[in-house]
Amino acid sequence: MNVSAMDSPCLDVAGIGAGPFNLSVAALLAPLVEVRSAFFERRPRFAWHPGMMLPGAKLQTSFLKDLVTAADPTSAYSFLAYLVAHGRFYRFLNAEFGAIERREFADYLQWVAGRLPNLLLGHEVREVQFDGDGFVLHGDGQRHRARNLVVATGATPYVPEWAPARLMCLHTHQYLERIGNVDGLRIAVVGGGQSGAEVVLDLLSGTRGQAAAITWLSRRQTFEALDETAFINEFFTPHYVDAFHRLHPGRKAAIVARQKLASDGISRDTLTQLYQTLYMDSMVRGEGSLLRLLPHRDVHAMEADSAGAWRLTAHNGFDGGHDVVDADLVILATGYLTRLPDCLAPLHDRLDLDADGRYRLQRDFSVQWDGPAANGIYVQNAGRHSHGIAEPQLSLAAWRGAVIANAILGHARYATGDAALPIEWASGSGEAAIDKAA
Ligand SMILES: Cc1cc2nc3c(=O)[nH]c(=O)nc-3n(C[C@H](O)[C@H](O)[C@H](O)COP(=O)(O)OP(=O)(O)OC[C@H]3O[C@@H](n4cnc5c(N)ncnc54)[C@H](O)[C@@H]3O)c2cc1C
């Protein structure tokens, strides 16, 4: 039964955070009358990366990789159910989208959130304790008890050490909230991934005013495309994740590093749009571009000048030189880090963390800890080191949700199988995983 946690003596499952990953688990558990679950989200209203909901920005994943379809295509919480509920199934098909807009997917997520009986918005979990029998979640003046936890609190914006004061820089996660009017400003955008590219395009569009200059710095050798070809997409399948999880832990980091462009590149459409904008400005209109592109640059210093602006210094990996960029506004498109959420601090000593302080996650996304086996702690979006490149992506959200739901239920309620092509990722003679949980 899905009931408000206030009425529930002890929940079977408490979820902390409700971004897409926990929404998936919530949507899979919601129809199961035998399971009491509640998912706590601190935002008063559901929102998916609102700071980067830029007009025209596209989803980098198929809309079929929604919250539930891969595990339960009959679910009432699928993207197709959303289209039908909004009476736009035929229009959507006729529109023939290669990739849908991020805004539509966000609206779908919000629609699901609004229908889930086991989602509690405006509930921040501040601390989790274990009382010997269950987890006690403390919020603002509220307490809830649960047998199992599913933690999906998202990633933390990464601010590089050279950025002197967080408030002086604008990280992309707050872009729409904080950008304001840029008339006459010299702007530096640091970071050559999808978010950096979207911000540069947005600034060039003039929607935020007319910047005086935009400089885009990236550590990468050039502005590199996301690789979405078929064999690369195999990395985002349950079959590959299983093979990766079984690998010797010592081999994993190097493999993930070599897969960077499978998840961290710029969409082809975005790159083409950017290139065509530059071409029109520089070659056809002959106006010269506002944009200065500095690839292969590693920013290592940021200092205030006497006029209150910023001076960035970057090393050029191409010729070994140095560049100086003066900017009134620095935008960090520097990505995100995974860290353990503060609310789990009382449990830290009981969790089995690796030498880098990361969770040791088992194949079903449960954390090894010294508590009773009946009390599971499942964590999502924190296992790139253990489960591989697909971990922070939407691609396997429904599958991962199903794996977690099945583990909690103790039986295979949802489909998680995956027929394989004759691709042999592992050799029988390879190094065996000495530590299956790492
Ligand atoms: C701009 C952007 C676009 C992306 N686009 C794609 C894409 O197209 N395809 C793809 O595969 N991946 C994409 N990703 C990557 C990934 O899919 C998303 O980051 C996704 O949102 C991760 O989901 P999540 O549930 O782990 O975290 P989040 O979406 O960050 O959600 C975590 C939630 O937990 C809540 N929370 C945190 N702490 C607490 C607490 N103590 N108590 C209660 N609530 C709490 C937060 O308020 C938040 O709502 C994108 C990422 C970004 C930044």
Fold and architecture overview:
The chain is of the alpha/beta class and 438 residues long. It has helices at residues 20-29, 79-85, 89-95, 102-115, 175-178, 194-204, 230-233, 238-246, 249-258, 260-263, 268-284, 384-387, 397-409, and strands at residues 11-16, 37-41, 119-121, 127-130, 135-138, 143-151, 156-157, 169-171, 186-190, 213-217, 291-294, 297-304, 310-316, 322-327, 329-332, 336-337, 377-379. It has two domains: 5-155 and 338-409, FAD/NAD(P)-binding domain, CATH 3.50.50; 166-225 and 264-332, FAD/NAD(P)-binding domain. The strands form four sheets. Strands 1, 2, 3, 4, 5, 6 and 17 form a seven-stranded mixed beta sheet that branches. Strands 8-15-9-10-11 form a five-stranded parallel beta sheet, covered by helices on one side. The chain has a three-stranded antiparallel beta sheet with strand order 12-13-14, with no helix packed on it. Helix 1 crosses helix 13 and helix 6 runs parallel beside helix 11. The two termini are 34 Å apart. It binds flavin-adenine dinucleotide. Flavin-adenine dinucleotide is lined by residues 16-22, 40-43, 48-49, 52, 59-61, 124-125, 152-154, 195, 341, 343, 380-381, 392-395.
What is the number of beta strands?
17
Q: Rg, please?
A: 23 Å
Assign the CATH class of the largest domain.
Alpha Beta
Q: Give the class from helix and strand content and strand pairing.
A: alpha/beta
Strand content: 15-25%
CATH superfamily of the largest domain: FAD/NAD(P)-binding domain
Per the CATH scheme, the topology name of the largest domain is FAD/NAD(P)-binding domain
General shape? globular
Number of domains: 2
- What about the largest sheet? 7 strands, mixed
Determine the fraction of residues in helical runs and give it as a percent range. 25-40%
**Helical run tally:** 13
Overall pLDDT level: 93
Distance between the termini: 34 Å
Order of helices and strands: EHEHHHEEEEEEHEHEHHHHHEEEEEEEHH
